[in-house]
Design goal:
Layout: H1 5-11, E1 21-25, E2 31-37, E3 44-51, E4 57-61, H2 63-66, H3 75-84, E5 89-90, E6 95-96, E7 102-107, E8 110-115, E9 121-124, E10 131-135, E11 141-146, E12 149-154, E13 160-164, E14 171-173, H4 178-183, E15 190-192, E16 198-205, E17 211-214, E18 225-228, E19 238-245, E20 250-252, E21 259-265, E22 270-275, E23 281-287, E24 294-301, E25 314-315, E26 321-327, E27 330-335, E28 338-339, E29 346-354, E30 357-363, E31 370-374, E32 379-381, E33 388-394, E34 397-403, E35 411-415, E36 421-424, E37 437-442, E38 447-452, E39 464-468, H5 487-494, E40 498-503, H6 512-515, H7 524-540, E41 545-555, H8 557-568, E42 575-579, H9 590-597, H10 604-610, E43 623-628, H11 637-648, E44 654-658, H12 668-686
Parallel strand pairs: 3-5, 39-40, 39-41, 41-42, 42-43, 43-44
Antiparallel strand pairs: 1-2, 2-3, 3-4, 6-7, 7-8, 8-9, 10-11, 11-12, 12-13, 14-16, 15-16, 16-19, 17-18, 19-20, 21-22, 22-23, 23-24, 25-26, 26-27, 27-28, 29-30, 30-31, 31-32, 33-34, 34-35, 35-36, 37-38, 38-40
Helix pairs in contact: 1-12
Protein name: S9 family peptidase
GO molecular function: dipeptidyl-peptidase activity; serine-type peptidase activity
Organism: Nonomuraea aridisoli
């Protein structure tokens, strides 16, 4: 008997194991280094290399031959993986020199450097567990963080010394602070100079950040974990920058803004990007590494908020700045001072700059993410089929990943200079579901919507109970033209539901006005749009939806939206499963929350409008609250406070606490049974 979908989904980390990722192309395009597990159920990630001339793959590093014991990660690495939503183990991250001849990585806090030509990996002695090692551009040195100190080891002599050591237990050098990693997609805290003779290093001091305690009630003998969490309206970590020379020099790089967004150091400039606390101003500076003096290169402002886009700043060979900024209602690619994309093409990210060409992802239709290049003269489409694409580019060689509704999984192809396509196979498991998804527009606002019906359902034969399955919040999408986006939705459909997935206002891909419709109100537009989508789909499928039995489920923002739905619109929604919901926005982090709702001391009414406890007395429908007690992102206090308010109001509800589970729910048994329990709850709740 084959495995059930819930069990297989859990074992395969939602079918991500076995998929090639983390690509690095050598400067001459002759080799592609990448990460992949050996099978779709193997959680140990290995390092591989593809010869683009011979098409031969080679296993470079198998962690089991280097570190056969179970992973024992230092706390900082566990936190980094939680921030990056990393579900696998083994070599989950690596860094190479410029020539891509050496790669470094950490296994259970132990530092290794691999010679890519021979495949030999060497263990290096360090004074403590290693976080985020990075080889110098010339391959002579490796830098890493341990115990909050930034250290450098000479790979020839094995001399190991600290360039900066923390002055107190709240200080770290070379690590991204919580807000940078969680909300600005910056996972690093130091950058090598192109010559390999200095590093730009972040110093973060968490002393001002309030201490919260994450308890484990299932194990009362354990001391609660102390965590510094910057909740909305409270102090952030103090960040500073220094240029640290290998000769022992230390040059401060001062800036006035609250947030360090990112930095880059190439042959043209040492660049830093900063942002004000209210997130309405972003500044790009060029820094003199010798003096630390900064020159303002450009400033972007927005009355709502400025957007952080990955991959910039960067430079063409002639020194022209590559940047992404808002213009005429769209996210546009700028080269120098010139916008080279139209406002109707929403730029998602800059993926690579190869000499005079820019590879970037963008959306015309919000359900598609396509690849484009700017070659210095014109825009050229790289991907031509419908789907979701990403990629890398170097040495005239490209790596393209493709997902679509027509094909299962992720397809990866290396495109050589001569145009020949070389596939990199995926070892991912097949979900075994007969997908029946229709993507279109629905409702008055023409919301991007997916309708997922059971494979066995004959259209018009009977009305099915409805399950709304949204994320629904800003900065993320559910309705994309790829099969992987709808696997869980299809499984729920197979249990007898008509499933609707809709992206409302605030979600990306439809321009700045659409995204900024949630300013000062994260509740009303999100809820209105789910109702709009439901009514629109009901008009399209009048004989297939039973609007007297409508449920809604979601996780994180989707959990907030699910609870919101049954509290404020019980006339529409008849049951809800709210997983890890944000119920009080004062308890969520500064950067995300203040971007949309402002400072809670300045706009308390805005926070009240978007939070849930005041609505507790309105509950008249079945509500299941699910929360991991070890969640350090949306802490369990959100669910517990809402539950207390519901109890005080005399409102019946259910709470499922998950002992030892974080926001990711990576444990196989938990992930599997959560799906089964949700179905059971929803079927009983809807009768």
């Amino acid at each position: 008997m084959s495995e059930s979908f819930p069990r297989l989904s859990a074992r395969t980390r939602r079918f991500t194991l076995g998929v090639p990722r983390g690509f690095t192309i050598s400067p001459d395009g002759s080799r592609v280094v990448f990460l992949r597990t050996k099978s779709g159920t193997d959680p140990v990630t290995c390092l591989w290399e593809l010869d683009t001339d011979t098409h031969v793959e080679r296993l470079v590093v198998d962690p089991r031959t280097l570190h056969p014991d179970e992973e024992d990660l230092p706390p900082e690495e566990r936190a980094r993986r939680e921030r990056s939503r990393e579900a696998a183990g083994g070599v989950v991250a690596y860094a190479t020199d410029t020539a891509v001849t050496r790669a470094c990585f950490a296994l259970s806090g132990t530092l290794y450097v691999a010679d890519l030509a021979s495949g030999r990996a060497h263990r290096l002695e360090t004074p403590g567990p290693v976080i985020d090692p990075r080889v110098s551009p010339d391959g002579r040195l490796v830098a890493y963080v341990t115990g909050g100190a930034l250290r450098v080891q000479d790979l020839g002599t094995r001399e190991d010394r600290a360039l900066a050591e923390p002055e107190s237990e709240t200080v770290t050098y070379g690590l991204a602070e919580f807000i940078a990693a969680e909300e600005m997609d910056r996972m690093r805290g130091y950058w090598w100079s192109p010559a390999g003779d200095a590093l730009l290093v972040e110093r973060a001091d968490e002393a001002p950040v309030r201490v919260w305690h994450i308890a484990d009630p299932a194990n009362p003998d354990r001391t609660p974990a102390a965590q510094r969490y910057p909740a909305a309206g409270t102090p952030n970590a103090v960040t500073e920058l220094f240029v640290l020379g290998l000769d022992g020099s230390r040059v401060a790089v001062p800036y006035d803004e609250e947030y360090l967004v990112t930095a880059a150091w190439d042959s043209h400039a040492l660049s830093i990007v900063t942002m004000t606390r209210d997130q309405r101003t972003m500044r790009l500076f060029s820094v003199d590494p010798a003096s630390g003096a900064s020159t303002l290169v450009r400033e972007d402002t927005d009355p709502a908020w400025v957007d952080v886009v990955s991959g910039v700043p960067a430079h063409l060979d002639d020194g022209s700045l590559v940047w992404v900024a808002n213009g005429e209602g769209g996210h546009r690619l700028f080269v120098g001072d010139r916008a080279v994309t139209p406002p109707t093409l929403q730029v998602r990210a800059v993926l690579d700059v190869d000499h005079d060409s820019v590879l970037f992802s963008a959306s015309g239709d919000p359900t598609e993410i396509q690849l484009w290049t700017w070659d210095g003269h014109s825009l050229l489409p790289v991907s031509t089929r419908s789907g979701v694409f990403s990629g890398r580019m170097a040495g005239g060689v490209g790596v393209l990943t493709e997902q679509s509704l027509e094909a299962e999984g992720v397809s990866t192809t290396v495109v050589r200079r001569d145009g020949m396509a070389v596939p990199i196979p995926s070892f991912a498991e097949r979900p075994g579901l007969d997908l029946r998804v229709s993507i279109g527009r629905s409702g008055r606002r023409e919301l991007a919507t997916a309708v997922v019906l059971p494979s066995w359902h004959e259209q018009g034969s009977r009305r099915l109970p409805v399950l709304m399955d949204p994320y629904g919040g800003p900065h993320a999408q559910r309705v994309l033209n790829r099969r992987g986006a709808f696997l869980e939705s299809q499984w729920f459909a197979e249990q007898g539901f008509a499933v609707i997935v809709a992206d409302g206002r605030g979600t990306p891909g439809r321009g700045t006005a659409w995204e900024r419709a949630v300013l000062n109100d994260l509740a009303t537009p999100a809820l209105e749009d789910q109702i709009d989508a439901l009514q629109g789909v009901a008009e399209q499928y009048p004989d297939d939806l039973d609007l007297t039995r409508v449920a809604i489920r979601g996780w994180s923002f989707g959990g907030f939206l699910a609870a919101l739905a049954v509290l404020r619109r019980p006339d529409v929604f008849h049951a809800a499963v709210a997983g890890a919901p944000v119920t009080d926005w004062r308890l969520y982090d500064t950067c995300y929350t203040e971007r949309y709702l402002g400072h809670p001391d300045e706009q308390p009414d805005v926070y009240e409008k978007s939070s849930l406890s005041a609505d507790a007395a309105k509950l008249e429908r079945p509500l299941l609250l699910v929360h991991g007690l070890a969640d350090d992102n949306v802490v369990a206090a959100h669910t517990l406070r809402l539950s207390s308010a519901l109890l005080a109001a005399g409102r019946q509800h259910s709470v499922l606490p998950l002992s030892g589970v974080t926001h990711m729910t990576p444990q196989e048994v938990v992930a599997e049974n959560l799906l089964l329990l949700q179905v059971d709850f929803l079927k009983k709740a809807l009768g």
